[in-house]
Amino acid sequence: MRFLLLFLLILLTACSGPDLDPIQHVLRSSHPAMLNVLHDVKKYEIQIIYTRIDTLENGAISFQDYTFRTRDSSYFYPASTVKFPVAVLALEYADAQPEINLKSSFRSSPDSIWHSIDDDVRQIFAVSDNAANNRLYELMGRDQINNRMADLGVGAFRMAHRLSTPDSDRARRDTLWFEENGDTLQLGGGMDQEIVPLQLDLIKKGKGFIRDGNIVNEPMDFSRKNYFPLATQHALMKRIIFPDNFKQEQLPQISAESRKSLLHHMHTLPKDAGYDQTDYYDSYGKFFLYGDSKEPIPDHISIYNKVGYAYGTLSETAFIHDRKTGIGFMLSATILVNEDGIFNNDNYEYDKIGIPFMAQLGRELYVYESATR
């Protein structure tokens, strides 16, 4: 990868224009992974947000945002990226409960295995564990999650359902039983409001979908699904990485200990979180820069992020930090790869088109940062 970055740096320096938008600049790349999709960005529903980060003389952090085709009204399925706010708000919830802490053991009513909120957050960021996410969903519920996100003013958002489980949008939630200092505490449970269908552009996708093993020859309707636009993902990442740039009422009220734990889990690689490297290689949940390779990610690169992929849609929001060079920038992007237009058939071009594009997009912007610092 070192020689590829050197070549891109030379090419970028030779071709750069002083006033060209950084995203527009990197989208002029002749790399095959970029050319595969840039001829039809509408078909691939590409959206991108890039933030250049500068430190001013007084030590304050300055953001310069650039966007490409980013609109809250253009729906894409967020998949596991919704686990990001669930994890953050679960930490906030735990900090607000005097009887428990992040390490308190709990189990759900149909489950005999003991868990903790901190360990569920670890699993969410290390390997994007669905069950861990769903336990935290039971704890808070979609009403509380939605209301809290609205209070924070992060942007458009709607949590509607759990992930990869039967009856995922049911209103009734399971009870969680916490054990702390020999005492048992019952949390979670209750009923959430019914889901109101979304009214957005691109809410119906494709030409067909699979239901109960049979094809339905009409677009798939996502109006009752989760909704987490790219701008909202990017805004939440800013608040977590750079809280000093925001007012207190715009920030999740998590303790210093909880924030430290969150940041640790966000960048920790699966092998360092206790998972087998054979199945969970470094880039398992890191698409930008390294997603198209199973080689180890260099130790001096930290990627604080959350990815999601389902129904042919790949998304990622990230803060990328190279401690060796000092380069740091934020990047969020989404792409749809579903060549046959059929949803729910597990026939998507993630490895062929989607992940190579995301990885190369990250590399192109890393090289841009290197050339312009």
Automatic annotation (TrEMBL):
- Which organism's genome codes for this protein? Aureitalea marina
Q: Which InterPro entries match?
A: Beta-lactam/transpept-like, Beta-lactam_cat
Superkingdom to which the source organism belongs: Bacteria
Show where the Beta-lactamase class A catalytic domain sits. Answer: 68-241
* GO molecular function terms noted in the UniProt entry: beta-lactamase activity
The name under which this protein is listed is Beta-lactamase class A catalytic domain-containing protein
Q: What GO terms in the biological process aspect are recorded for it?
A: beta-lactam antibiotic catabolic process
Which residues belong to the signal peptide in this entry? 1-16
Q: Does the keyword Cell inner membrane apply?
A: no
Q: What is the lineage of its organism?
A: Bacteria, Pseudomonadati, Bacteroidota, Flavobacteriia, Flavobacteriales
Keyword Signal on this protein? yes
Q: Which UniProt keywords apply?
A: Signal
